[in-house]
Design a protein that fits this description.
The structure holds two protein chains of two kinds. Chain A is mainly β. Chain A has no helices and eleven strands. The model of chain A has no long low-confidence stretch (mean pLDDT 94). By secondary structure, chain B is mainly beta. Chain B is globular. The mean pLDDT of chain B is 93. Classes of the chains: A mainly beta, B mainly beta. At the A-B interface, strand 4, strand 5, strand 9 and strand 10 of A face strand 4, strand 5, strand 9 and strand 10 of B.
Chain lengths: 113, 116
């Protein structure tokens, strides 16, 4: 079966711009979570969506937002980009209830210049 | 606040050795614990999931144990190979009353190098 698909794989943006990242979960999975990975901070939780509702949120500024569609695909948006937003953004999908084993995509490498 | 610590931060071993990676967590109210590997610049690959009611899980040369009361998990890799070289991450998901909260809290990882 198809895994978790993230697009695009690489992005280069300028400070002040905004960006949208996409994540298609494994078929049947209803939970999508987003993580930011940097060398200094490691993996940090951004937010989780389950059945189109944000169920959990990490400690990131409001510039980071997301949504989930009825087909469980999710998008993450970052507005007014800062140099410190440069990171690998990973999404994970799971059933969301009962079996919560998480499966990750390959990530989107965002570079802000 | 849940904190996850992994020891050692880095490990270099010759091929064929058996090795143990350690993970500890501060809040024992976990729903499950999951071990991942990450190759440079790549996403995370799930290795083993241990439910909070379980004590261990095995997959091939990998065996993971969980002791909730002491807040510890270990990942045992038998007969290591150069292809095992990667960063190994453990993560816990908090739960209460059988409901998970959908948020994985990760350790900083152990960088494993297996040399021929």
């Amino acid at each position: 079966k198809a895994g978790v698909t993230q697009t695009p794989r690489y992005l280069i943006k300028t400070r002040g711009q905004q960006v949208t990242l996409s994540c298609s979960p494994i078929s049947g999975h209803r939970s999508v979570s987003w993580y930011q990975q940097t060398p200094g901070q490691g993996l940090q939780f951004l937010f989780e969506y389950f059945s189109e509702t944000q169920r959990n949120k990490g400690n990131f500024p409001g510039r980071f937002s997301g949504r989930q569609f009825s087909n469980s695909r999710s998008e993450m948006n970052v507005s007014t980009l800062e140099l410190g937003d440069s990171a690998l953004y990973l999404c994970a999908s799971s059933w969301g209830q009962g079996n919560t084993e998480a499966f990750f995509g390959q990530g989107t490498r965002l570079t802000v210049v | 606040k849940q904190e996850v610590t992994q020891i050692p931060a880095a490990l270099s071993v010759p091929e064929g050795e058996n090795l143990v990676l350690n993970c500890s967590f501060t809040d024992s109210a976990i729903y499950n614990l999951q071990w991942f590997r990450q190759d440079p610049g790549k996403g995370l690959t799930s290795l083993l999931l241990i439910q909070s009611s379980q004590r261990e899980q095995t997959s091939g040369r990998l065996n993971a144990s969980l002791d909730k009361s002491s807040g510890r998990s270990t990942l045992y890799i038998a007969a290591s190979q150069p292809g095992d070289s990667a960063t190994y991450l453990c993560a816990v998901i908090r739960g209460f009353g059988g409901t998970s909260y959908g948020k994985l809290t990760f350790g900083q990882g152990t960088i494993l190098t297996v040399h021929p």
